[in-house]
Amino acid sequence: MFEGIAVQTIIFSIIFGAIGIAFSDKFKIPGILLFFFMGILFSPNFLDIINPSALGQGLNIMIAIFVIIILFEGGMSLNMRHVRSLWMPLFKDISLSIIVMICVGFFAARFIVGLPWEVSIVFSSIIIVTGPTVIKPIIRYIPLDSKVKNFLNGESVLIDAVGAILTIIVLQFVLTSNELSHSILGFIRSLFIGVVSGVLFGLFIRLFINKTKILTPANNGFLVLAVVFISYIASEILQPESGLLTVVIVGLILSTIDFKYRDNIFNFIEQITRIFISILFVLLAANFNLKNVTTYLVDGSIIIGLIILSRFIIIFLSTAKSTFTFREKIFISWLGPRGIVALSIASIAGIKLSAAGVENAHAIETLVFMLISVTVLLQGMSATWVAEKLKIVKKGDGNIIILGVNNISLAIAEKWRDDKTDVIFIDSNKKNCKLAEQKGFPCSEGNGLEPVTYSSILMDNYTSALATSENNEINVLFCSFLKENFGIENLYTILNEKASVELAEMMDYKDIKLAFVARNRKEENLSVEGFLSKLKGLFSYKEESIAAIVPVTNRNFLSYKPGTYPFPDDVIILAVLRNNTERYIYHTSFQLQLDDKLYVMGLPESVKNLKTLLSID
After folding, report:
1. pTM higher than 0.85 for the full model?
2. Taking burial as the number of CB atoms within 10 A of a residue's CB, which of 118, 141, 403, 527 is the most buried?
3. CA dihedral over 523, 526, 528, 529, signed as positive or negative
4. How confident is the model over 105-140, as pLDDT tens digits?
5. What share of the chain is helix, strand, coil (3-state, %, to 5)?
6. Which domains are present in the chain?
7. Distance, CA of 309 to chain centre
8. Over the chain, what is the mean pLDDT?
């Protein structure tokens, strides 16, 4: 059936990697956990379906090629505009990580585990990195302040490249017995050449794509892929070990490319990267000998503990004069999982040191494997809990994306801005976008159902969506699109015209809530015509309507179930303020609590009746 065990290994690595990607997206867990599990399960240790040793030197070649693409994608995924204000703490963080981790890692490996100095120094350089391949999935669904997410993403991308280069330089120093000063100068030259080459190649391809029409937007991704490898080779020729930083810089520059082209390029590279990461994790996990863990279980656990504690020192020193709060610093310090780049380099280092006759060289891969397993499991699975305990999770509907610029959506946006919460509009009408911008809100002009519309938006920062266009189908499809493509869970829509049964079923299936409607009488809600017109009428000057904040102080009123509250017919409940910090879009299944404050629109008499209804008897 197969031409050999090598072909079987590659094919099944692709299969299991693809399965891991699908299930990690479905259940919103870091894919690395599934890749690890499947790699170990199907390795020679257990079911013996995947045998990476059959690939020989091919495994090292795959690692080298895959890491280039992974680092480039990491650079391109990092929006320069969002990390610009964090450059100084990021620079301090990377610098301190190099110094502190090398010292801690070396002395721990040398004097606690008793490893040779060659193995100890290489291990200490590997543990510097934190991986974007695990950081992003962990924080994606946690509603944190944008600067916390930007710092963690920026750190993981930049330190991945710097740490990889440092490790390779250190490995060369160990294997060739070069003078320390020579190795340090080599590291500095690699950084310099890497940055310069990356800037030159990045600006060239950026200018070429933006200013020429030689290629169609759909084919730009192939050109970029070619340039990435060309830039890597050219940089390596000028200065060995500088190529990895070059591709990161090229990615950073291309992240600022015109959004009309960026989306196609990034989607193309991202899909390649995801399958590369999954294959590589499965292969490296399958290549690991679990028996080695028992040898270093106790000493390795001590080292991991020291590495985790050291990160607290690094983060607190590097963010000393930043705007991060004490609680945010604790969270950032806690979250430092290692990823695919660390494991890849550890595998290569272990093989090269073993070939050179260095004693206990396999300990590098074992300790790094343990570090990745513990940090991903412990920190990844506890990240949400830690953020909640530290009270840095943004409660309520958080940062919101609104489809359609009109009086209703602008009024909601004003309330969100009062809480210093981010709001962005999506509208295909240029005049509507200008209106939003005049009110001080950013607006992305374009079709809300096309990915290119969101290419300049850091979507991980948004947790809610509200659709307020005049078209029912577009509203529901917009919410569904954001859920499927960006993982946004808090979805709200208004309905203006009679909705179909199919649309109602889609809303149920996608958990899209009917906004601003008080009673949960689905048939009535879905058949009512002109609801948006009614809202616009209440907001217009032609109606003698008023806006009011109405507190809930009547305990008896809370005995009603959500969707059955007896609100007056001429009152629209738009939003709910809870504990003066949490703001929610009101919907049919919303559960009111004592002292909630309702933001309402209605005719004066109806608002007066509502205040009476909600006040203390």
Report:
1. no
2. 403
3. negative
4. 999 999 999 999 999 999 999 999 887 878 888 887
5. 65, 10, 25
6. 5-51+59-389 (1.20.1530.20), 400-614 (3.40.50.720)
7. 24
8. 86
